[in-house]
């Protein structure tokens, strides 16, 4: 019989060690079967685990099981007390055999779990979040994605408080226990990594439906929420069914269990989680009705429901070998959800939205101290790498492969990938290889997109040569932390020439593959002065620097037949004017005003596109295009242009604002009209604030839907006067008891373009409805404020201090959430020296904070390096 070894206490200070991709090694032990038995209780939950373990190869190493804050109450090997020790948080068990059953028992407290990782309580519901490394907060396990096992889960709980008990897979047994308890046993036949484990217990009601798969299997669907929220679940259910259908038709993927459930909880660190057969969602991506959710909220719900559902194949059936491969499942799945949303609505508008997000978040990330390739080389805390680079640039990389291969070969590649790797943990390389093998296209150089960080900068100039046109291209991939002297990448540029006079395409669209630092491409038989339409559909995630002729952008904004390129031309026209204004140059606003008028009054463009095209580039986007960011000058330049447009086009804007669509009409057409209504309201108010406020208040009062109401309140938020105060007071009264909608009240005040916004957010941080414990509320106030360039960079530095104080405060409760707000401070090098110094000082204060989490430590210290 082995002796138990008394364990030392787990270390209390974080160890900030880096983990490297190059160090990957197969696990020493496999765990093909896991049986869990949980006696659920919010204060103290007993977790008994039985792991079947099998030695991987011939080695003498002990069995090392990861834990996080766990104390073993008992550990046995094949029923006998084990020889074990704790190494930090890890349980290390001496093993004298090659296969065994390991039983452990621990006690955890869900209600004390403020990190919202592992098993935690949210509004009386017990739920789990295990990706990336939360399973080790529930029980000891290798907890790495390449260790796949079949799970059987038995749980018991008080029947009155927790009448519904859910876990992955199918329910195989249930019954009543002693003392008012009941129990259920669930079995998931698909081997899965521990990060996909899930369990939910609570007083929940279901919106139920069914779906018949293409092979004729009936799947039961359920969206679980609190009873009072049931009326807000129809959109999520409809989105789920649409996503299931779409994945069958477009990717040939069929659902594989008899049951698929979605559960909504209010406290959640991010959007949602793709646990096998039991997706757990942040309630903001489930609950919607016309009175409380905007059209953008409805679209986000459809996108996230689809994203998590698509993970069933791209993530669950084929998972990641290690966390460096995260983009394998996330980049591909984002691409899949983007394509789904495009197919459900307008492809052009979806592309515009996706590119706006990429430019707003990923481009700055790629240009800053936290830049990393979509497949990172190292991390301290993997949670910090759930980034726009891994997700959104990752999706762009998949999209480029599809563009280069064409749809049929791309589909053949994805079929091969799923077939080859089903039931395994794969790598990004496996994905590219499958694409290559199925298509015959050599992707050797393309692989640089996985290893090189930084946004390539592409120069383009079109020259005439007799009746030919010559496109001269260049590329530079900028240095990023730890990476310099990069190799040229493959840049797929959809390109067309447009006749300046006719406005028609001169020949076909071509896919130009730029592979070198410099290249020339000839277009023959050009009889008319050509205009350059390049990177159409944003075919490559790059910064274009195009040498333009006078009047070229105006013309392209009016006649380019690629909707995205047309939008781009208009935005570029605005940007050039805004940058010049911010530099203090005298600008002539009329080219922009004329372009806006043409767009607004066009009979061929739809309202949704107009709404996008009339939205001026954001202040941070203007800043990204300048050598040094001067937030005041940028703000003034943008406001001046908005004012000029508002004054010159008051009549046309008021006419578009007067349009409307019934709140219960969620068609793309109705959504477009509502979008344009609020965009034109904002421009009108810029030209005439007094009349604008009255019009906004009227829109607010008359609204039969949240899109119009929020759009009006967003305009009022930046104005002065009684209408503003009245509308905010009314909004608070109406929605005080509705958590998700009250988030909007915080958010709208935090994004207000006002000189006193920093005072407002300081006040709101002390408001009775503000809490650091709810990630949505935190993001609504603190996250929105940090993204409000003008207010956050208020010259006194109070905005920086506010953010740093909140980060330090929330880090004690929830490091993941805290770390995500460090990047706005990390952009200090881009600011003028006075602000840069104050930002740097706040980062130093954060790093010097005793007991800092490794999450925040990594982000803040890398931002200073
Ligand atoms: N896979 C999860 C994200 C988990 C984040 C962990 N820090 C949701 C998603 O991307 O679908
Ligand atoms: Zn995902």
Descriptive report:
The chain is α+β, with helices and mostly antiparallel strands. The chain folds into five domains: 14-203, Immunoglobulin-like; 318-450, Neutral Protease Domain 2 (Neutral Protease, domain 2, Orthogonal Bundle); 456-546, Immunoglobulin-like (Sandwich); 548-687, Alpha Horseshoe (Zincin-like fold); 738-865, Peptidase M1, alanyl aminopeptidase, C-terminal domain (Zincin-like fold, Alpha Horseshoe). The protein is 40% helix and 21% strand. It is built from 28 helices and 31 strands. Helix 14 crosses helix 16 (668-687), helix 16 packs antiparallel against helix 17 (689-702) and helix 24 (798-811) runs parallel beside helix 27. The two termini are 53 Å apart. Residues 307, 311, 330, 333 line the site of zinc ion. Zinc ion binds at residues 307, 311, 330, 333.
| Hetero compounds | (3S)-3,7-diaminoheptanoic acid, zinc ion
Overall domain count: 5
CATH architecture of the largest domain: Sandwich
Helix proportion range: 40-55%
Mean pLDDT: 97
Total DSSP E strands: 31
CATH superfamily of the largest domain: tricorn interacting facor f3 domain
CATH class of the largest domain: Mainly Beta
Rg result: 28 Å
Strand order of the largest sheet: 6-5-9-3-2-12-15-14
CATH topology of the largest domain: Immunoglobulin-like
Identify the overall geometry: globular
Question: What oligomeric state best describes the polypeptide chains here?
Answer: single chain
Helix/sheet category = alpha+beta
Treating each run of at least 4 consecutive H or I residues as one helix, how many helices?
A: 28
Tell me the span between the first and last alpha carbons.
Answer: 53 Å
Q: Give the DSSP E fraction (strand runs of 2 or more residues).
A: 15-25%
Low-confidence stretches: 1-14
